[in-house]
Specification:
CATH topology: Nucleotidyltransferase, domain 5
CATH architecture: 2-Layer Sandwich
Strand order of the largest sheet: 3-2-1-4
Number of helices: 3
Radius of gyration: 15 Å
Helix content: 25-40%
Number of strands: 4
Structural class: alpha+beta
Distance between the termini: 43 Å
Largest sheet: 4 strands, mixed
Length: 121
């Protein structure tokens, strides 16, 4: 009998496969994305020290003006905000970790927003 694989299991497999290759360092930290059904989150993480350097999400008070916090427009705003905060911390280049998510829709919009504000990856 063939076992069917759920959407979550497939995403977890993609995430594990990516995390074997993607690692953030002090010189080039990791930009990690998480999205739920209602919000989008982004963190810049130094894996060597195990700390979050910068974070942004649709829950931030700066982004309360957004009518829908789960669409691509909101994700672009989060990308722009994380890039702005990263530049304040002196971070210009990152490694992009899409967290097992496919590179389209909100993930693509967040990446483009971060690149628009000068983050290189």
């Amino acid at each position: 009998m063939i076992k069917k694989t759920s959407h979550k299991e497939l995403r977890d497999q993609r995430h594990r496969r990516m995390r074997n290759k993607v690692r953030g360092t002090a010189e080039r930290p990791r930009l990690c994305i998480y999205k739920s059904l209602q919000h989008t989150y982004a963190q810049i993480i130094d894996d060597d020290r195990g700390i979050t350097l910068v974070s942004a999400s649709t829950l931030d008070k700066d982004l309360t003006h957004l009518p829908n916090k789960s669409n691509a427009e909101a994700a672009r705003e989060v990308g722009m905000k994380i890039a702005e905060r990263a530049k304040e911390q002196g971070i210009n280049t990152v490694v992009f970790d899409r967290n097992g998510l496919k590179y389209h829709g909100t993930v693509l919009a967040l990446a483009e927003g971060a690149r628009e504000n000068g983050l290189v990856f």
